[in-house]
Amino acid sequence: DLLKRFGHRITKLSPSLVQIKTETEVVRKLKGIKINARVRINSFESEGELLFTDYGLSGPPVFALSSRIDGAKNAIIDIMPEYGYSDVLSLLKERRAYLSDVNLEEFFTGMLNKRVGQALLKYINAAPLSRLTSTLSDEELKKIASVIKGWSFGIIGTMSWNNAQVTHGGAATESFDPHTMESRIVKGLYACGEVLDIDGDCGGYNLQWAWSSGYIAGK
Questions:
Q1: Are 171 and 197 in contact (CB under 8 A)?
Q2: Long-range contacts for 86-94 (Cβ within 8 Å, ≥24 apart)?
Q3: Residues 98-137: pLDDT tens digits?
Q4: How far, in Å, CA of 131 to CA of 127, rounded?
Q5: Can you tell me the mean pLDDT for 62-83?
Q6: What percent of the chain clears pLDDT 70, i.e. is strictly above it?
Q7: Residue 139: helix, strand or coil by DSSP?
């Protein structure tokens, strides 16, 4: 508010490096499970340890994309990012062949987290899981492969400011000298850290920005 009164433009503020809230039908059943995954929101992607929660999605790749929602309706999760679609489909066909007398409940054992695999099968309406693996049709295997490579979760929003590690948005940077952090509008006025429209990825970048910009402004 002070900066605005001095004539500085303030960009839209939103929580960043924060958990994303999604439709809960699937995630609630997977609460507490961590998997390596690639997450895509709009045209942005991030890969790392994804955590399912009772309200949605968490973990470093989700934090990294939390400021990129911008009206996106879905978060797309690739739970086998190291494989292409055709590779996944081939793997599934191989498993159907050599696990033919195993119930679907155990189909993904050794390939995916068991609860994730079971939730996926229910998601594509392959229930009951008491079916034998040999009963899976080629079309069902294609659906499974598609979901593994692009499981869609409807985005509701993000968790609150209390959960956010940093603020996205703030005082527009063009009105500050990057060498001194002094306002180009009001002499003797300095700004640093989160009050400026700068936010970085996970990994200490926001802390480093706070220390570095604070040091320069102080000097």
A1: yes
A2: 88/145, 88/148, 88/149, 89/141, 89/142, 89/145, 92/141, 92/144, 92/145, 93/138, 93/141
A3: 999 999 999 999 999 999 999 999 999 998 999 999 999 9
A4: 8
A5: 92
A6: 100
A7: helix
The tokens for 64 are 């990294």
How do residues 156-175 score in pLDDT, each as one tens digit? 999 998 999 999 999 999 99
Tokens of 130: 């008491």
Helix 138-149 to helix 85-98 angle (10° resolution) is: 130
Asked if residue 35 has pLDDT above 90, the reply is: yes
The residue assigned the tokens 């968490």 is 58
The two structure tokens encoding residue 11: 């960009």
The full 3-state SS of 28-93, as one line of letters, equals: HHHCCCEEEEEEEECCEEEEEEEEECCCEEECHHHHHHHHHCCCCCEEEEECCCCCCHHHHHHHHH
Distance CA 208, CA 193 (A): 9
Neighbours of 218 (CB within 10 A): 9
Q: Pairing state of beta strands 151-158 and 20-22?
A: antiparallel
Contact 175/8 with Cβ under 8 angstroms? yes
Q: Per residue in 2-30, pLDDT tens?
A: 999 999 999 999 999 999 999 999 999 99
Residues in contact with 181: Cβ distance below 8 Å, sequence separation at least 6, in sequence order? 190, 191, 192, 213, 216, 217
